[in-house]
Q: What sequence folds into this?
């Protein structure tokens, strides 16, 4: 984020960004051309009549090609600044000439992290800006390359929908893995040994859920805005499909909420079991100590070296003391049993 | 769920699905025909004028009959894909030609699980798609077979209402069993022994409540949409009955919320009691140890083998030490009593 | 509740219901007739021109008189089924011919439980269906019998208001008793001994609050619907009084919420104090054990029977060891004092 | 509160009410007359043309003067019943002839309690009913008595505003004292000794916050209703000032919420620190016990009186045992250090 | 805050305020004049046609210059009183002649505290009132001084936007430092030693989050009001930029909520780990004590000085007792292993 007070729309390359790479796919109902690692001029050449151009830009290290794209497609400067300003909230805005979507999607390379995706939809172009290189849109690209596929016959809004849908659906495998992890944690917590620090794992999972929720929560507003269909950039045919996206987002949030509550419940379970086991341990200690401490005292008494201890001189002294101690132990055990400790 | 990025409306058989079985019930005011294990052609043959056809499809292993049903009744492809895409959120959608409902109901065979139910209502047909074979709709079928019953005289919307009502009411017996379980848990927690791991049971119950809530929560929106009555597929006569369904859903959610809070309160109770008992145990240990450790030290002193210990040579040494120890024990006991430990 | 899938509007007597008893009060501005334990025919006889008839039905064991009442007053079958279907949510519905209210009120005989009240208001009748016999409406009946009272000069809506008001106000004494109980629990928790299982009492109180909240929460919607005044069955004169009922319901919910938070705070207090006391107990044990265990070890050393222990032969051996032990104890005590344990 | 079922608008003196005292202030742009401890007739005499009359009634022991005021100013009977019915929720109602406000304010004499204030605003009168005698409105009265002040030139709505403003602003000093108390508690909890029962103080503060919140929460609705300005009793000139009152109420609720969260955080801190210290105590005990218990066992072995114990006869026996014990202690200490306990 | 009941709009200098310093920047498309430490007359002189005047007032010790500014620019007295009344809630109000904004921003000198900022926007002036001197607006001032910059060509609303934007963006560096601190705390809690009182640090961070949230929460309403664009003081060109401010505020609140949950999760982690370690400690103690206490008792028995103890006279007595003790220890160890304690 540029420093507070700087001019709005300032393009600032984020720290530790990947190098900027452009690739372009131009298609119409009859043909598809796909080129990776292109320059600005290659894109301009493909932008002819009847073609729909999809430019995919990954990595935000170099601002120059991004600025050039902004000029070529007349993108709004605030929107372009949002694209490279990471940690932004998902949003959808209609700038008249083009629609702008910003959202976070799961990083295909590293599924515990999310990356930012900016998407511009104009009358004859779709631009995607991904924070990191990765293969999030391979299946969509394949559908475009498939000569039998319906997608290349439809407009850019259909491609934009397919990309948004892929971004949203990318969350579900991560949720499944979290579900598995919570299941394992439940097993580890319930099993008696608990040598492994299950609690640190649980914390890591909760933290991951927090991050996902922060990424996914504003998607709901974006999806609602798309479904409400106020944008002229999405045609009526795409509307039911956008409703499908909305349903998936809501399902996603439901699942996240569910896992959050489940992890809370697991934490409670963990705490209860630790307490329960502590109690068990203490009972064992208390029973052993409470029985033997008095007995040890008694044998100590007869270990004293006073010259004048009449009992020690009698033949019945030793068995009498033994008997006394057995009686004390028996009384104690009965008392413990009555208190439910045994 | 098909992989992220695949074409919308893809029919993908879920993992571990039961085999697909179709059964059909065709009825009008005068007659009812019921056939189980039928093929697509049998259904087509029964779809004559004046008949209302109810096709019940259980199990989603084979996509072929499902796709054929979709074609025969002109079902929307997104709706059909939702039907076999498990773990969907309950929803209600009106596709013009037919209304579509998706909801989760309690599995009649295994009441701790829920299964997905898809329902299509058209002018002369009702289609139900159940995730697993089971007897959820036996009573509704019987009412249809009953020659005296009112249902066969009414339209398909009345049948659809009856099926939705049965699906919703199927939750209540499960809630009653949870109520019983919570009552038992409360008894187990309050009773002093607590040998059984009540806390793991409590966690299982909370998990079950979480699952039920996730299944039941979106039902509210569905029921509201039905009551608002924007669909032409439900006639005005059925409206008050749909309001009844809505009331039941709200009651269901109230109960779920109630049990959730009750289980939280039980957990607090459990933790408090465990702490309380730990405290009791520690008090016993502390009292015993605090009294006897100093006494044992004293008898140890007179057990030392120094040649020059004048007290041990006197006749009053032994009784004096015994008296000293009784005094110490009495002082300690009084101090404990004053602190409220006894 | 009838089994899932049965026909809507089925009248099913709840399990363990009290016997059904009808009583009737017919009044106009000049006269009042009151009869208890009447049959259907007695009621029909009193239903003459100018009379307002209040039928009070308690206990739902016999469905016959209830069904007969339904026919006589042309009650909607779903409403009538709701009346005898216990554990329903409070609701208000206008069936054109008559208004229907369902709510839970405190059982006058057993104030820790709630019972269901169904109320029908028609142009010349008020019907009340109480789950259990009891004296909830004695004061209202007395105001009706009072020749000077205003109530008999007004219509049935005024009587219905008085009954609803009495049902709502019946909650307040229960809340006062809960307030007292929480005060006592606070005292018990803060007082040092805590012999009584205050925590189980606290849990019972929380459970009671949960039940009351579940019963009272939907009253808010009912009261709001009444205040909005969409029903033609309540005249404009009664409107300000209904607003008063609404205010009481909101106050009731405020109090319930307040007590709930107070009980949570008490639980926290209890846990903190138990922990605090455990800490105190452990400190005492640790101080005693930490001082005496090393000393006991030292006296044990000189209790060993080695023939060759030079110190034991010297005259200064015994006092030197005593001095050593006093020094150790003093050092330990000082260390404890510095840690703030003493 | 009168018993459930009694006639609406019944005036019932609350238990333990203070004696009823009336005082009156009549003013116009030129003159002010103030009288304390007056009767009904004095008030009637001052109610002449052009005068605005402010009657302040404190204490609700005697219903007679209150009933007389109700008649003289034609107050609505439900409003008048609300005034003396304590523990009511704050509300604002417009009865056509006059506006009615009910709210809770901090008791000037005893700032940890709140008292009820009823306020009626008519075309030429302002009536205030305070639950207890006290000096909440001294500053407002002074502004009225000040010949230079603007207030006496304005209407009764301006006086009503000033009174409401004073009632709301009276909460802030209490919040400041709570802020101070929480600060002290934080210090007490963080300081190591913790001799004083900080936790009971914290509970008392939380309880106080709960009471304040219950009193202040409904003020928001009242203030919103005033700002919306639907009442003809408040002129447009007073509107911006009412908005100021609304802002203060919202700020008040923000602060209350803040202190509530802060007190929760303090409780967590307390619990964590108690646990931390318990852990420390237990470590000390465990280290001491774990080192000395085995050593004490060894010296016990050589304290046995068997005639045939060869080691005890050797000259090297005693030093060898001493060496063995030093070794054991050293190994144990190293093990503790490796576990991070030292 | 002035005492409750004082006249509205009273200007009261807050306690411990910094001295009041005025500085002024007058600009138009061609020139900029900047003066620090000016008097009222200097400002009046710069207020000529075509100029936009920005007066920045820091510190509220002296009321005189503030009152004079209020008169010169005809500010509403309630707004002016709000400016110097600290701890106010953020708000936005349109007084016709000028718009008024009040918000809290991070103090540039001391980033853990917030300070109050009042901002007036009129047709040809912008006034800012900062609670404390500080450099929050240096970058904005520089953009104004930059002859190439766009800002001086635009109106006062553009300057006001830049100031609000700077105030909002000033929160983000503080959030980043909190993120870092939470990360360090997580490390400290997870690392085994935990010598440092991580829990007190965590509490301080939570308290800081609470303060920030209280400051930032009402910004949302302010930003929404600005975006809704009802004010004539902000031109349509500035609208998209205000939407950007709104997005930043929402992102800010998201982050605050996230950190709050993260800190709760850290607290849970801490408590769990402390409990876990306590359990470990207790197990060690219990194992040691449970093995050696019975053995110590046995050796005590044979340390008794009875004359008649037959075993002590036999040659096999000593080895038999040793063997017995080894057996007991072995049995105990096996039992512990079976319970999973070893």
A:
């Amino acid at each position: 984020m540029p420093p507070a007070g700087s001019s709005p729309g300032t393009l600032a390359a984020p720290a530790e960004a990947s190098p900027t790479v452009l690739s372009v796919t131009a298609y119409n109902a009859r043909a598809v051309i796909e080129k990776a690692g292109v320059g600005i001029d290659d894109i301009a050449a493909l932008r002819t009549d009847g073609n729909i151009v999809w430019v995919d830009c990954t990595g935000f290290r170099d601002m120059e090609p991004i600025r050039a794209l902004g000029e070529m497609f007349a993108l709004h400067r605030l929107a372009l600044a949002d694209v490279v300003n990471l940690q932004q909230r998902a949003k959808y805005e209609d700038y008249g000439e083009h629609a702008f979507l910003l959202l976070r999607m799961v990083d295909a390379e590293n599924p515990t992290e999310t990356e930012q995706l900016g998407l511009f939809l104009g009358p004859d172009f779709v631009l995607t800006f991904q924070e990191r290189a990765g293969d999030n849109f391979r299946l969509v690209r394949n559908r475009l390359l498939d000569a039998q596929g319906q997608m290349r016959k439809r407009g850019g809004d259909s491609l934009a929908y397919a990309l948004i849908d892929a971004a949203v659906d990318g969350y579900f495998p991560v949720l499944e893995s979290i579900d598995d992890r919570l299941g394992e944690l439940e097993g580890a917590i319930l099993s008696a040994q608990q040598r492994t620090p299950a609690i640190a794992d649980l914390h890591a999972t909760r933290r991951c859920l927090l991050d996902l929720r922060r990424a996914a929560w504003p998607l709901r507003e974006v999806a609602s805005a798309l479904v409400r269909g106020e944008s002229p950039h999405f045609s009526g045919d795409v509307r039911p499909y956008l409703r499908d996206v909305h349903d998936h987002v809501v399902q996603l949030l439901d699942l996240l909420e569910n896992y959050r509550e489940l992890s809370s419940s697991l934490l409670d379970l963990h705490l209860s079991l630790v307490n329960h086991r502590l109690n068990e341990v203490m009972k064992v200690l208390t029973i052993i100590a409470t029985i033997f401490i008095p007995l040890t005292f008694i044998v100590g008494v007869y270990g004293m070296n006073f010259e004048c201890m009449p009992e020690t001189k009698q033949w019945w002294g030793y068995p009498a003391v033994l008997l006394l101690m057995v009686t004390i132990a028996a009384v104690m055990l009965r008392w413990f049993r009555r208190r439910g400790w045994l």
